[in-house]
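Appendix C: a fully annotated inverse folding record. The material below is reproduced so that readers can follow the format used throughout the book. The structure is listed first as tokens, followed by the designed sequence.
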């Protein structure tokens, strides 16, 4: 998986014009600069996936930590939620 495939950009979802698609194609041929997680500071080259938003980025690991926190805040995660967390963390290690 290339570094560019590891980045999901939410800000580009808002722009569906032909011009923005052409600009993106031109940029794909250029060297891609690393994208850093706004929470942990790691670059996209060191994480499984990176989600870009308007002015903020979050890696898959920080996303799962946040999800885990929100689930565990209720003190008793559902068995399905726990399975998802277990699968994710086992694949990261």
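Designed amino acids, in order:
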């Amino acid at each position: 998986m290339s570094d560019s495939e590891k980045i999901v950009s939410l800000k580009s979802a808002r722009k569906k014009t032909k011009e923005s698609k052409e600009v993106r194609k031109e940029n794909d041929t250029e060297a891609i600069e690393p994208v850093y997680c706004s929470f942990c500071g790691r670059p996209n080259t060191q994480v499984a996936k990176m989600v870009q938003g308007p002015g903020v980025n979050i890696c898959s690991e920080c996303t799962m930590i946040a999800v885990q926190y929100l689930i565990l805040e209720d003190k008793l995660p559902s068995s399905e939620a726990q399975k998802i967390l277990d699968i994710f963390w086992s694949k990261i290690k």
